[in-house]
Design a protein that fits this description.
By secondary structure, this protein is mainly α. It contains 18 helices and 2 strands. The chain has a two-stranded antiparallel ribbon with strand order 1-2.
């Protein structure tokens, strides 16, 4: 059966692509449109019984060229939608949101076997991982090399440690008799995903987070969580659940919460979060490259200073995660973007409960890399 010839609108799209040096077929246009990557053509009647004609929406012209350049064997429609969205292309909004929602597929209550519990699922997931250090070996090597440089310069890690502790009115970091492993991280993450991040005991969260710090260097924020809420008892009553979880964390399974962001977050916020999530691995690898070069030549302090500023705060966790995420696929980037939205919402709720908190402290390098500070500290729109 002969195929219907391309409409006037599709002819216009094909001609536009060809004018940009991109070859596209009418069949590919149909496939992209069926997958929600292209908006439908605009049809208008000619009047006086002359039938109708069609024209492509203006945004379709740019999309056709981009798809012709990037689509191909093995490229899933959802990945193409996310990639094009991240590049600033006018992808239909419903398609983009669907791609984000599909990226939020993580352990959920649906994975609990009959007669089982979240613990059973967490045990199975954790057993797939080793008991090795959750910090990538490259980061540990840099930490050790930096410690050696400090020793050669007449300064020890212990001296740096005491300087950091003095700022937090501490004398010595608590010992971690049984360091948390990658398996512990997976177990805790699975439990938080299924039962809700707010159900995870704050002390256990601190134990996991402290393991990410350089060996022998304090992690005051993590330690505060590990041994109880760092604020006053009045704050703890407001911010902690009776079970010791964080009361200000969005409730529900993490998959449910993240899918909510995928479908309802303002479109500009999704784009900003995507771009930050995509840049985090680039930042992490670049920082490692620059610090390694500085350690080899010992003629640059800027990179070493930047590394040191990430050693004791939330930025350390971002660095550890991002180094492991280098070369991630679009789905992983989308998941990372949704996680950033989740973290920002939790931070907003926390600050709303502590109005006297010094927000300026969150703009320091130990909290977030400079390129994400404005996003993470943005207040909820009135």
């Amino acid at each position: 059966m002969p195929r219907t010839p391309p409409s006037p609108a599709d002819h216009a799209l094909l001609n536009h692509a060809a004018s940009q040096g991109v070859t596209v077929s009418a069949r590919r246009l149909e496939r992209w449109r069926a997958n929600g990557l292209l908006p439908p053509n605009q049809v208008r009647t000619l009047g006086q019984g002359r039938g109708s004609t069609s024209t492509p929406p203006p945004q379709a012209l740019e999309m056709v060229v981009w798809l012709g350049q990037h689509a191909g064997p093995g490229k899933r429609p959802g990945d193409l939608a996310l990639m094009a969205f991240g590049a600033g292309l006018p992808v239909p909004e419903a398609t983009v949101r669907k791609g984000f929602a599909e990226a939020a597929k993580i352990p959920s209550p649906d994975d609990i076997p009959a007669g089982g519990s979240a613990v059973n699922v967490a045990d199975v997931n954790a057993a797939k991982r080793g008991r090795n250090d959750p910090v990538p070996a490259r980061i540990r090597r840099i930490d050790a090399a930096l410690a050696a440089v400090l020793e050669d310069a007449g300064t020890s890690v212990a001296d740096v440690t005491q300087t950091v502790l003095a700022q937090f009115e501490r004398q010595a970091p608590p010992a971690q008799v049984e360091p948390a492993t990658r398996r512990d991280w997976v177990h805790g993450g699975t439990m938080a995903a299924i039962e809700g991040a707010g159900t995870l005991d704050v002390g256990y969260m601190g134990t996991l987070a402290r393991r990410l710090a350089p060996l022998g260097v304090p992690a005051p924020a993590a330690e505060d969580l590990e041994f109880g809420w760092p604020g006053s008892e009045q704050e703890a009553e407001r911010l902690l659940t009776p079970e010791g979880g964080l009361a200000f964390i969005p409730a529900g399974s993490l998959e449910e919460v993240l899918r909510g962001y995928a479908w309802a977050a303002p479109f500009p916020d999704l784009l900003q979060a995507w771009r930050i999530a995509a840049h985090l691995p680039v930042w992490a690898v670049d920082l490692c490259d620059r610090v390694e070069a500085a350690l080899a030549t010992r003629d640059s302090t800027e990179a070493l200073s930047e590394w040191a500023q990430t050693m004791c705060g939330p930025a350390r966790g971002l660095l550890v995660t991002a180094v492991d995420s280098a070369g991630q696929n679009p789905g992983k980037t989308a998941f990372g973007a949704l996680t950033l939205l989740f973290q920002r919402e939790a931070l907003r709720r926390l600050l709303a409960q502590i109005p006297e908190a010094e927000v300026e402290n969150l703009k320091q390098p130990w909290a977030f890399p400079s390129f994400m500070t404005a996003f993470m500290t943005a207040r909820t729109p009135e």
